[in-house]
Give the backbone structure.
Amino acid sequence: MRRPPTLAALACLAVLPLAACAGEPEDTERPTTPAGVTAQASSATSVHVMWETSADNEAVTGYEVYERGTRVRTLPATKHMVDVDRLNPRTAYRFTVRARDAAGNLSAPSTAISVTTPAPAPDDRRAPTPPGGVRGTVDGSRAVTLTWTRSTDDTGVTSYDVYQEDSRVHSVPGTRTTARVTGLRPGTVYTFTVRARDAAENSSPDSNPVDLTTAPSPGDETPSTAPTSLKATAREGAIDLSWTPPRTGVPVREHRLYLNGRPATTIVWGAEPPADTATYTMTITDPPGTRYSIKLRAKLPDGRWGDFSAQRAVVVP
């Protein structure tokens, strides 16, 4: 027979958000100090701050960014970069980052990073050229290193932004042509592109994409179920696709196509699904200049949807 909770137990539950009850030790351990903090001036009035993730005995719940001891941004634990805006041109700033856990414990401040915003740029509407020759290497199961050739710009490139699919995941100063991206998942396909940016916040078109698959976790020998060799070509009124279905032991009869991160259609083959190269043509009616992000996944023999392919971006001509 289950007894109702006692008044003492109910009182304990009522104060749990404020203090730990008897028998439950209070969490007083700080998260580790954020490492790898960088700060670069994105423009005359903004600075991009990045850092590596911290650890905690329970869990890190957020990060706080400070400028000379004054908190300027608060972010969730899933974020490890932020643009600090509304700054003054030609001004020196000094940023630190602290991690926070659910009990409110703050880590020690990170190493302070100094940065100076440049002078305001003249009226500039010309974007830099896209970075060329983007290549990448896999650094184990959770990191990759990218390299590229320099872009050109009429006023000068101030930074390079690394995108994973359509999300910016890293930035480096315009003087650098390499970036190391961390915090990735083991055994996962990633598609990276790089864009150059100038002091007027003009961004170049995407570089060539580079597909990288991180190493699996130790002991994990499960093969990837992602389609490979995805190609997408836009022409007037249509987008032509081709890819290699995953090897699942039996022919793959269904693929689900995603446009801009959303399911668009399911491609179904009949008695003879393609074994080596699959092709599909999608009709489009959007005006020239419309940009699509495209990826797909296969339906596995057990009925589950497999891993995502690399992503491709096309612009309607």
In short: The longest strand covers residues 92-101. Helices lie at 7-15.
